[in-house]
Amino acid sequence: MTRYLISFNDGDMTFPDEDFPAVKEAVGLVRKEGKEKGIWLFAGGLWSQTPITVNEDGTTKNESLQPNTPHIGGFTIIDVPTKEEAFEWALKIAIACRCAQEVKEIMDDPNN
């Protein structure tokens, strides 16, 4: 099996406030299905914020490593056998969240 990061950018989820309960329910159903199938590892949303960069010397900066680039707004990590299956889950999440999703393969860690 291979792990994939499925994510969207901060600000991509746009819908009327009154639709929030329906979106929350749709996302919950996708999460439930993924857990039942044993492929759902973790998911979370991030508050809209300026990232804090921690440098090698321990100093910090209130900025992104790549200023003026989009920041992740939410993400899901799944473990599925094929990239095509990752795309299928990304589609389910895109429909539930009402925004496009980006799919990236996570490098295998032989120590896990």
Detailed description of the structure:
It is a single chain. The chain has 112 residues and is of the alpha+beta class. 29% of the residues lie in helices and 28% in strands. It is built from two helices and six strands, in the order βαββββαβ. The strands form two sheets. It has a four-stranded antiparallel beta sheet, with helices on one face. A two-stranded antiparallel ribbon has the order 3-4. A hairpin with a 5-residue loop joins strand 3 (53-54) and strand 4 (60-61). Helix 1 (20-37) runs antiparallel to helix 2. The radius of gyration is 16 Å and the shape is flat. The chain starts with a strand and ends in a 7-residue tail after the last strand. 15% of the residues are buried. The mean pLDDT is 93.
SSE blueprint and pairings:
Elements: E1 2-9, H1 20-37, E2 40-45, E3 53-54, E4 60-61, E5 72-80, H2 83-97, E6 102-105
Question: What does this entry show, briefly?
Answer:
The chain is α+β, with helices and mostly antiparallel strands. Helices cover 29% and strands 28% of the residues.
Regions with little confidence, pLDDT below 50 for 5+ residues: none
The oligomerization state is: single chain
Number of helices: 2
Give the class from helix and strand content and strand pairing.
Answer: alpha+beta
Q: What is the helical fraction, as a range of percent?
A: 25-40%
Proportion of beta-strand residues: 25-35%
Average pLDDT? 93
The rough form would be described as flat
Rg measurement, Å: 16 Å
